[in-house]
Amino acid sequence: MRTALIGWILFALAGHANIAFGDGRCDSPDNETRVRGDTECLVIRTFRPADPGEAPKLIVFIHGDVSSGGAADYIYERAQEAVANGRVVVALLRPGYFDSAGNQSTGDNFDRQDSYTKHNVDAIAVALKALREHHKATRLVLVGHSGGAAISGVVLGRHPGLADAAILASCPCYINEWRSGRRRWAHSLSPDEVIKQVPVTASVVALTGDADNNTRPILAEDYIKTLAKRGVRARFELVRRAGHNDVMRRPELRAAIDEIITQLGQ
Fold this sequence. Notes:
The chain is of the alpha/beta class. It has one domain (about 30-265): 3-Layer(aba) Sandwich (Rossmann fold). Helix content is about 35%, strand content about 20%. The protein has an 8-stranded mixed sheet, sandwiched between helices. The protein is globular and about 45 Å long. Residues about 1-20 have low confidence and may be disordered.
């Protein structure tokens, strides 16, 4: 009986390890295609310019909820557009998401609902730390879209100093207000909950389209105003004739990335 019990426990642990690390590529992750995020193995795609430099700035793109279903690799194209000398750009797939090539990050996205959990946010933070060390990056900039923007905002406050700056596109920066009139998200962290912990040395730009009927502009605008009152270098930009997903394809986003990189200097 005892032997059988021990065998069952070992089987269960092995099953958990398989869930966490999939095909084994996170046993010794290369931090180029896979990165370990605590107990999760996250899919990434890395883009390099001709001259990244010995100590580049690292820009990490984090996608939205893709609530309509399907692959999340629209973020790959957006990340590739940000490549320039002196930068390394990484697109990261959040826990439970997959791309059109069949690569999937481990973990749970809870059917793409209420998934900005402590576990998922902290897994991404651990992965970001590993990527910054791997690339010997002098600066780390997060570029988040929608749910990825919310997660980026939470990382700024929950893990202060990990990222130097963030660009928040179509951000639901006040989750409870965003969910008003719908089923409340009880497990997700919200950027406004950790706003007092965002370092005053951080730089933040938020962009929302004036035609965004998902994450209304006020959600990001009020967040930025609160940051600015605390002395954080923060600004909000309303993108004209842009919907919820349009912002990621607009020149205003690329201009904001260049602006942040310039602000950070060396």
